[in-house]
Inverse folding.
């Protein structure tokens, strides 16, 4: 191979006088090289506008004609031409190419193939015959003749366009566009077809005199999306035609008008009209997304029905993180009737649109955390979609908000925490519902705490807290409407921790301590309610749970002052096993609860940390050495199996500080039974609390070839009902399709049965499914629906995950 390199200095490329020598003419016509090493000797500022690589080059001095043969490559301003033979005519300033040739654009997203070409010297204008254009490695367009104009547009005559793989054994693609003429505008990134005909498997199905689509490199463009078709036993046969419209670079809207062309069981021949929409907007610090629809039908007494959902998330410059969702509907049956949310919907900000069949969920959450301040606001509410007399298991308006300051002052020992909070539990289900009580609360808490260390042995921990509460209790005949309360706690503990290490790596630790706590209770009469609104220090800054003589519940408070002596021992080996225990003796100095009695409390502890097997056992004993509490946790990991378990038992004994009995246990299992099957199982049981005993599990199978299935369930053993039950079976067919069957049961709200057929490859996406929905919330008869979605690839960005290959 011969190497040629020479820079070009004049501005008009390939303009020179005929009497130059062959070497100078070569340099003017092309910079021919296998490398650009000689360009380093060029005069500074001389641009290297064009270069060529070839096995052989011939120059005709008389005809001013250059002919390059053998693996020819020409580069010009980002364009690249490859061909076996290239000729350059100096007089006409044209490049003639004998194919097969390949012309690649600056971005590499467009490649043109052809048998013959007559091009300008800059490769931006000319004609290519027997051409085939490949756009974004997806859309290919074949034509008898292709004309390039100014490097911007490409005009093609008698066009066949498709995104499907075309194989020699079957030259008919799944779909193709045929047109008399097509124009590809590379700057606008559009394709325009004249006299276009859509063919499916070779058969013409649609004709249009004019069609414009985005080219495959476009991610967003105005225009129609793939239509939807469904037949519903209640709503009839429906056709939807979505339209996507950009509102600048950061916002867009999609509207889908849907009409019923044939009435369903209840609609008669009435023409149902529905307009569904989605609005999205991105900001530099967050997003907003809205979903909504309105319909005109005769299914209810309301002529116009509608719903509107909105979601958003922002990270504000002042440090606040904001997350919100709002949902509203004109009537409780509208969303269930049209089944708008049959499929899971995720916003483009990757947040789930949280929708439950029996309620509309609304929430607003914002917070900011600094080293010296916390501001948090959490409002959660729902609008009931069930019958007005249905009793939900929680209030439908819940507020938890706080403003907390963390401060320390020079010259003043310790740290200060000042907390202001507001809480509310409202039951707004209507005048006939059993849930009526509303509670609101304002609270202010001040805590001081300090740790004093004397050398490496003596440690003193002290703290003091004051709690102020104002309650409003409404729609409750047994409790006052307004109540105020003040309470406080003072505590200190002196401890002497010792630790001894042995040569074998074991550790002995002994910690004797003496403590004092004094708690002054408030005076509040509280009903049994949900959440933490009935607890002193609802955000738990003072950690009152560490004092076994102090009860946080506003409904079971008592004054108490007590001291205690405690001795704790622990021995731990280098392998992670440990054993230990503690002995505590407390003295009740004063109390207004005659049921309390001072005495000893003993505990034993043993277990193991680290490794495949871990466990912990804690037992507590009363002064009579009767075992009153057990807490056991354990886990074992095998190569294919993991086992976990826990057990918690507490005997009710208010005298020693355990007023509520506890009986709770749980076991869990996860297993990779084979390379194709894995399973999980969990059981929990609680004797004294409702909605805490259930069984859940899942079994999944996937042979990585053609079969997959999953079965999962959550069974509430307190109510003997399934909270969730789901069975899915899928099978991949030999011709590339996938068939799946679904059964899903969501609590006592909805049961779904479905059968779907899906096919997806590099150029087409098809989904056909039949479903039956039994919505217990709307009290409507079960609805059966058949739906069909069909999308062609390459019209906008997006290829199928499955790509067919030719043999």
């Amino acid at each position: 191979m011969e190497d040629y390199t020479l820079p070009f200095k004049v501005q008009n490329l390939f303009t020179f006088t005929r009497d130059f020598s062959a070497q100078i003419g070569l340099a003017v016509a092309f910079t021919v090289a296998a490398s650009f090493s000689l360009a380093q000797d060029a005069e500074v500022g001389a641009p290297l506008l064009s270069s060529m690589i070839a096995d052989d080059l011939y120059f005709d001095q008389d005809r001013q004609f250059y002919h390059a043969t053998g693996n020819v490559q020409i580069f010009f301003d980002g364009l690249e031409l490859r061909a076996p033979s290239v000729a350059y005519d100096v007089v006409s300033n044209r490049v003639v190419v004998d194919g097969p040739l390949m012309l690649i654009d600056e971005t590499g997203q467009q490649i043109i193939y052809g048998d013959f070409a007559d091009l300008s010297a800059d490769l931006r204008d000319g004609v290519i015959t027997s051409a085939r254009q490949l756009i974004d490695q997806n859309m290919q367009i074949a034509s008898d003749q292709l004309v390039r104009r100014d490097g911007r547009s490409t005009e093609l005559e008698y066009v066949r366009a498709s995104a499907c793989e075309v194989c020699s054994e079957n030259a008919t693609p799944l779909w193709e566009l045929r047109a008399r003429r097509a124009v590809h505008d590379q700057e606008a990134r559009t394709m325009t077809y004249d006299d276009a005909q859509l063919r499916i498997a070779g058969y013409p199905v649609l004709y249009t005199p004019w069609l414009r689509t985005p080219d495959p490199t476009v991610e967003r463009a105005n225009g129609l999306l793939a239509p939807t078709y469904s037949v519903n036993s209640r709503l009839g046969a429906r056709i939807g035609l979505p339209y996507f419209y950009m509102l600048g670079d950061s916002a867009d809207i999609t509207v889908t008008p849907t009409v019923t062309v044939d009435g369903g069981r209840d609609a008669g021949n009435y023409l149902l009209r529905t307009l569904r929409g989605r609005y999205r907007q991105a900001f530099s610090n967050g997003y907003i997304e809205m979903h909504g629809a309105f319909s005109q039908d005769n299914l209810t007494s309301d002529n116009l029905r509608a719903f509107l959902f909105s979601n958003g998330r922002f990270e504000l410059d002042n440090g606040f993180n904001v997350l919100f969702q709002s949902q509203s509907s004109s009537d409780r049956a509208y969303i269930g009737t049209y089944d708008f949310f049959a499929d899971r919907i995720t916003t483009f900000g990757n947040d789930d649109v949280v929708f439950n069949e029996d309620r509309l969920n609304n929430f607003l959450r914002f917070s900011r955390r600094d080293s010296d301040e916390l501001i948090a606001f959490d409002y959660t509410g729902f609008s009931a979609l069930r019958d007005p007399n249905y009793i939900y298991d929680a209030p439908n308006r819940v507020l938890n908000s706080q403003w907390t300051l963390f401060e320390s002052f020079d010259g003043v020992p310790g740290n200060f925490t000042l907390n202001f909070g507001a809480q509310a539990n409202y039951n707004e289900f209507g005048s006939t519902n059993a849930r009526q009580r509303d509670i609101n609360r304002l609270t202010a808490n001040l805590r001081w705490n300090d740790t004093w260390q004397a050398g490496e042995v003596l440690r003193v921990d002290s703290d003091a807290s004051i709690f102020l509460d104002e309650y409003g209790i409404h729609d409750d005949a047994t409790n006052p409407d307004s109540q105020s309360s003040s309470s406080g706690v003072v505590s200190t503990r002196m401890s002497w921790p010792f630790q001894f290490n042995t040569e074998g790596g074991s550790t002995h630790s002994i910690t004797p301590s003496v403590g004092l706590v004094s708690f002054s209770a408030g005076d509040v009469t509280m009903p049994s309610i949900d959440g933490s609104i009935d607890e002193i220090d609802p955000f738990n800054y003072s950690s009152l749970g560490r004092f076994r003589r102090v009860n946080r519940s506003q409904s079971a408070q008592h004054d108490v002052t007590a001291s205690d002596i405690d001795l704790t021992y622990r021995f731990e080996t280098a392998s992670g096993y440990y054993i230990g225990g503690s002995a505590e003796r407390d003295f009740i100095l004063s109390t207004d609860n005659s049921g309390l009695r001072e005495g000893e409390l003993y505990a034993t502890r043993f277990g193991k940390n680290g490794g495949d097997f871990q466990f912990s056992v804690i037992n507590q004993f009363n002064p009579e050495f009767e075992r009153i509490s057990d807490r056991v946790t354990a886990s074992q990991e095998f190569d294919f199996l993991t086992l976990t378990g826990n057990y918690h038992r507490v005997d009710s004994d208010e005298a020693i500080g355990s007023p509520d009995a506890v009986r709770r246990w749980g076991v869990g299992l996860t297993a990779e039974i084979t390379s194709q099957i894995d399973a999980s199982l969990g059981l929990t049981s609680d004797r004294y609390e409702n909605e805490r005993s259930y069984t859940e599990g899942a079994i999944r199978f996937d042979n990585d070839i053609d079969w997959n299935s999953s079965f999962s369930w959550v069974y509430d053993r307190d109510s003997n009902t399934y909270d969730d039950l789901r069975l899915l079976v899928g099978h991949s067919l030999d011709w590339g399709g996938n068939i799946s069957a679904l059964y899903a049961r969501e609590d006592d709200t909805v049961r779904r049965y479905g059968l779907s057929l899906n096919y997806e490859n590099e150029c087409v996406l098809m989904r056909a499914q039949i479903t039956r929905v039994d919505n217990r919330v709307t009290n409507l008869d079960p609805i059966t629906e058949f739906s069909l979605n069909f999308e062609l690839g390459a019209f906008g960005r997006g290829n199928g995950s499955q790509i067919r290959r030719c043999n």
User: Anything to note?
Assistant: The CA atoms of residues 110 and 468 lie 72 Å apart. The two ends are 36 Å apart (CA to CA). The longest strand covers residues 438-454.
